[in-house]
Batch of 3 targets.
Target 1
Amino acid sequence: MIESPMLVDLFTHVIMKVSIFVLFITALLLCRAPTALSVTCNPVELSSCADAILTAAPPTAACCAKLKEQRPCFCQYKQNPNLKGYINSDNSKKVAKSCGVPIPTC
């Protein structure tokens, strides 16, 4: 079988395009936000912040760590009628600010 130079060039071009596309998709998958490490929303995880929120005491390091961990859940907590008052309280906002955790607008 005789291969024409044009056919070889076309085949090489197609292989290059497919390779670039595969690399692009791989990079896109590797760079997207980490969803495998998603947080489990559980308000009990914020129990280390109870003293700071209820009494205006300074938040502990454990409280700040949990606030940062649970931040993706704040909107869910704000929608819960049992938690809404705590999440929207002035002390809660002060604790979040002290910990450097912005409260999202939902």
Target 2
Amino acid sequence: MLLTEYLNTDIDFGKYGVFEPVIDRDSHFFINLQRLRQTEVPEFRDSLHLINAHFERIIKLLLKAEAKDCKRDNFYKNTFIYFKFNEVNGICLGFSKSISGNGFGPKLSAEVLSNAFDIVKAGIEDPEFFQLM
């Protein structure tokens, strides 16, 4: 079912450049952060800077972390506080089999932060590497 059907409206979302999702499953699309470099949408104009600043905080914690152990290393443990990405229900982006996905759940977060720890310890401190993971 398309959003226009659900809302019972004849609005042509495409005319306004608005994505119309199928509301009972994910669309297999994702947000390409690199497109934020050239955005002219006022609400998104500073967003890439804000995203990079967020990941710079995680990198600072990983630089101080000595082990991938949340019980023994508070710096590593605190990276999980900043690495919570819940999915907004109803936008239907991603690869879930339903519209109530998890975003980054605990297992995926642990895997990505473990890899990020290795990358930072290898000397890479560029926050845009997170966008490649």
Target 3
Amino acid sequence: MQNLLISNNNVHISKISTKYAKPTFGIQWNNVVVGLLIIIITACVFSFEPALADTLEGSLIK
């Protein structure tokens, strides 16, 4: 009877650990996507940066 109880407990623990494994991976995947978006947006901003600098400089001189 005690062996049965221990095996049931182990099954319960393994179910909990697999239950929480997927959301953790999902959160990490979201972080990867957000990081890539930030990198892409930053690259776009810096590619337009010289034009922005000229525009701001022109508006400041006037």
